[in-house]
Amino acid sequence: MENTVVKKKRTKLDRKMDKIKALEESGALKKQKKVNRYLRKFMNNKLAVAGVIVFVIILIACFAAPLFTKYDPGTIDVLNRLQPPTKEHILGTDKLGRDVFTRLLYGGQVSIVVGLGSALGAAFIGVTLGCYAGYKGGLLDNLIMRVSELMMSFPRIILVLLLVTIVGQSLSNLLIIFICTGWASMYRMARAQMLSLREEEYVQALKAFGINDFVIAFKHMLPNALGPISVNITLSTAMFILQETALSYLGLGVPLDISTWGNILNAAQDLRILKESYWMWLPVGLTISLFVLSVNFIGDGLRDSTDPTQQG
Amino acid sequence: MAIGLISALLFLEGVLNLLTYILRRVLYLIPMLLIITFLVYLGLELMPGDAIDFMASPDTIAMMSPEDLDNLRETLGLNDPFIIRYFKWLGQIFQGNFGYSLSTGVAIKDIVFDRLPATVELATIALIFSSLFGSLLGVLSALKRGSLADNALSIAGMIGVSIPQFFFGLVAILFFALQLHWFPHGGRTLPGYETFLDRLPHLILPSLVMSLTMTAGVMRYARTSMLDSMNKDFIKTARSKGVPEWRVNLVHGLRVAMTPVVVLIGFRLPMLIGGAVVIEQIFQWPGIGSEFIGAVRSQNVPLVMMISLLSVSAVLLASVIVDIVTALLDPRVKLD
After folding, report:
1. Are residues B134 and B84 in the same domain?
2. Please, are residues A164 and A177 in contact by the beta-carbon 8 Å criterion?
3. How far apart are the CA of B219 and the nearest CA of chain A, in angstroms?
């Protein structure tokens, strides 16, 4: 009699403990411990995992584009222009008869490369400078700090468009402009990390041993700042993709003959297309949003798993 | 008596500290502006084309003989060394002479005065709406942390920062202007309709799109800031004193949480100008932003340079004002 009462009182927590006990006995927990702690934390974040899945799907679809479509993104087919979606053309065709689905896939390649490339380039410059100048301090740090302040007082899109006016419009120019305008915030982030790491005892010890400044900054301190840096690269990728699409939509980004996500949306500047040919811009816009969203979720997940102060 | 004197002296010292701080912040603007104007002038000089084209109005140039043109060159100082040319140009800027647009020959000052009110109107509404709405949602979400509403708001905020602003604008135009015909799809006024009420329908859609995309950012920031302040010791002290929960949240927590949010709102100005560029283009809003896009498209270098210069100056000025306001609001801000 008493036994059944006790059984009824078993709470959710008891059942959880039982599960953990069973896992422990079967030896499953031991295996799990070998997995990186950060990775495990990351995998527990459902949104971040969903982000990774969507990210990988879009990435594969874009970079293995010939497997998914038989058309060429540049082939003009005047007879089949402005076709709504059919079995032949899943997302219809545009003003010149090009297959929109094909352009979406190939355009993704360029947009993703521009976004990721700019973020990595900006991170390379910003982190290299920030790491060394942040550790050394002094005149060099002061000087770079002033330059970055100068750059960051420009509204981003104004600075980018100003540079576009000066150097002209091309794919490589756009990449260079993005890197030139993006390194400043990376520099500040890396510098802030270095400033707090500089006071750690192991750094003082290395200094006392007379180890080379470069070695201390890049070999011993930088690895401890990789968490925030990777978060920043991820979030910057999302931002650069948004910037590329906005600029190309305005017709001022990547030249129009190269398919990018922004360039496809450029067609929607025409009100008639906006109203009557939804297939030419709506799926592309949704894809961009989904991709950027997935990258942002990954970035947030990375932050939660690497930065203990951001928990909760 | 003596105590009164000491406290008066301390107060005076505080005021003096604040004044020197304000002075230092304002003086700090000068080298920044000098460097920026110098870069802008360098850009103007290096770009192809004759400098005289954007220093004198095209009408006067067209009327002149070659000798007169040479004289004008001399009086404008175009034959002087570069540094002197720069300072003469700077003097002109301070007198409000920004030069002339390459494409239309209109004075840039007139273009700016013509276009600025539209942008200010749009940006002010977006700033007010997004600040109020964003901080309200952020604080609510922090107080109900971990709840369904908090999670939903967090995800909504994430979606808000992930959708390209112009795509959001396009969808809004499609639904509310082209399908439902609730609002016009672009422009600011119709000919013959001049009052604010006439303009209101034109204003709603662009300002709403701009506000909503900015709300997401403020909300995320306000949530973190509020969570941060609710973890502080003085909140625990207030609770243990028996202060009612709503007072703890709204009086003790919120006041401290709002300082960084105010700072953020001040620093939104660059985003406001940047956001206005794209939104104005989509809604054919006749503000500075769409003028800027037009200038970039037609390689109208003087106009591009001057609008950039003005927007940077506005941002720098705003950041100084924000610094001063936070120093006035929060006594813990270090005045050095």
Report:
1. no
2. yes
3. 15
